[in-house]
Design brief:
By secondary structure, the chain is of the alpha/beta class. Helices cover 46% and strands 13% of the residues. The chain has eight helices and seven strands. Helix 6 crosses helix 7 (225-236). It binds nicotinamide-adenine-dinucleotide.
Amino acid sequence: MNISVCKNARTLPFASGMLKGRSAVVTGSTSGIGLGIAEVLAMHGADLMLNGLGDCAEIERVRQSLAESYGVLVSYSAADMLKPAEIDGMIEQATRDLGGVDILVNNAGIQHTAPVRGFPVERWGAIIAINLSAAFYATRAVLPHMESRGWGRIINIASAHGLVASVHESACVAAKHGLIGLTKVVALETATTGITCNAICPGWVLTHRVQKQIDDIAAREALSIAAAAQELLGYKQPSLEFVTPGQIGALAVFLCSDAAAQIRGAALPVDGGWTAQ
Ligand code: NAD
């Protein structure tokens, strides 16, 4: 497994010490969108707890690289998002290692595509557990810490599939619609406090899982990888460009700013026009 720190984060137009003194837990941050978000938060000064699966040596290399590049504390929890007790343990560890949790990004997610009548029951359970229930357990665990500090940001990484559906995506669409529902309830329950809760809804981002879909199209239709990528984008994403992890990270940083203090319970698409159709 080769994990590289998100290159495009460094080329984004703004960087600040805005999050200095804040600490963030980003679930599923050993690759893809989560790693991109973690890097942009660190770039703006936040201390981090990484989480996710992967090769221990690679994860340690990424942890050290983020800490050295941005001069922030970076810790790691191997908590399995299928296991509520491990999620509680991750928040306890973050409190010990980083001195508290100001920002929680619920990003970990898995996917499986199949028609409903043939959808494997075990995959359904795992997708609902990781993509939806884990966000509930982590939110439940951080709220007392955020309430005692009078400030917090909970950012749920949903999907265009939290707003609209596609065939063969029953578990992911159900989990992401559920995650947006959870986002609204948490936003209402914290509405008079300094804690906000919002969802970001990405369209296609070129991570491992999307690369696999492109490879499948290329093999099935005897296309080049570039042509298969354009075909995939053409199904749904009018911009015909992938969203980048850095762009999702930049929106997460904005949601952590004072300017975003009254954005509460929103589901914000970053999808190249997917859900405008
Ligand atoms: P990815 O596969 O690159 O990363 C998923 C992360 O979750 C990894 O760090 C992985 O280790 C972690 N993870 C998986 N199972 C876990 C478990 N049981 N416990 C702890 N960590 C676990 O995926 P990605 O494309 O970066 O997706 C990240 C999030 O963004 C997901 O919630 C996904 O649904 C959402 N999303 C992705 C896209 C896209 O186009 N890539 C689009 C919309 C939404």
